Amino acid sequence: MSPITVLLVDDHLVVRSGLRALLGTQKDLHVIAEAASGEEAMDRVQEHSPDVVVMDLAMGAGMDGIEAIRRIRERNRGQAILVFTTYDSDADIVRAVDAGAMGYLLKDAAPEEIFSAVRGAVQGKSVMSPPVASRLFQQLRNPEEILTPREAELLSLLTEGLSNRELGRRLFISEATVKTHLAHIYAKLGVETRAAAIATAIRREGMR
Fold first, then answer.
1. What are the CB-based long-range contacts (under 8 Å, 24+) for 19-22?
2. How far does Cα 91 stand from its chain's mean position?
3. How many Å apart are CA 90 and CA 117, to the nearest integer?
4. How many CB atoms lie under 10 A from the CB of residue 89?
5. DSSP 8-state symbol, 9
6. Of 14, 9, 20, whose CA–CA distance to 71 is shortest?
7. Where are the alpha helices (DSSP H) in 49-89?
8. Where are the alpha helices (DSSP H) in 24-62?
């Protein structure tokens, strides 16, 4: 049986070296290549076609992990990608999953948890670190909290009675982008009108 090939993507050499050594203890896991940026990750995926990409989110200048995940998945919808990071905010988790990540591990995960996640990704399984899984579960129970920071900001501005054009000027985005954000907000909040979204925003503020 052929080993599972892995691409490591992290801008820290020490992290990549440690993870390579860890995965190397497993006969069925083989690190086939490494990358230190999102741009390099896209090139390495193209060159090596790894079974699994293990991706950090923050990688200094250039393309970050979220954008790299999105672009890799656009090229190959079947590519398995696991996030391996120190970032555990709600926004980061949601953005990574939305971009196409199949799993989300924190860097303090136990070795067996990492091995299991890589093997599971090849089988199409989604694996999350317990703290991440807990946050996602809470977000599913409280859908209002899955708004991205920009969507939350726009929702708050709705209460000021601003038009789409005024919202765009305030946030330095186009009216078309405002409409896209509003559509996402309505869907996530389960509302169909601007008034209902404003009512939800006011209720959210009152609960803080």
1. 19/54, 19/84, 19/114, 22/111, 22/114
2. 8
3. 20
4. 10
5. E
6. 9
7. 65-75
8. 38-48
Structural Rg of the chain based on CA atoms: 19
The Cα–Cα gap between 70 and 99 comes to: 5
What the block records as the tokens of 175 is 């009216």
User: 163, 118, 93: which is closest to 171 by C-alpha?
Assistant: 163
CA distances from 110 to 114, 121, 171 (A): 7, 17, 41
What is the pTM for the complete model shown? 0.67
pLDDT one digit per residue (tens) for the chain, 208 residues = 799 999 999 999 999 999 999 999 999 999 999 999 999 999 999 999 999 999 999 887 788 999 999 999 999 988 999 999 988 776 677 778 878 888 889 998 899 999 999 998 998 887 887 777 666 655 555 555 567 788 888 888 887 788 899 999 999 999 999 999 898 888 777 778 888 888 777 765 554 4
Contacts of 83 (CB under 8 A, 6+ apart): 55, 56, 57, 65, 69, 96, 101, 103, 104, 105
The phi and psi torsions of 86 (rounded to 5 degrees) equal -95, -10
Lookup: tokens for 183: 């559509």
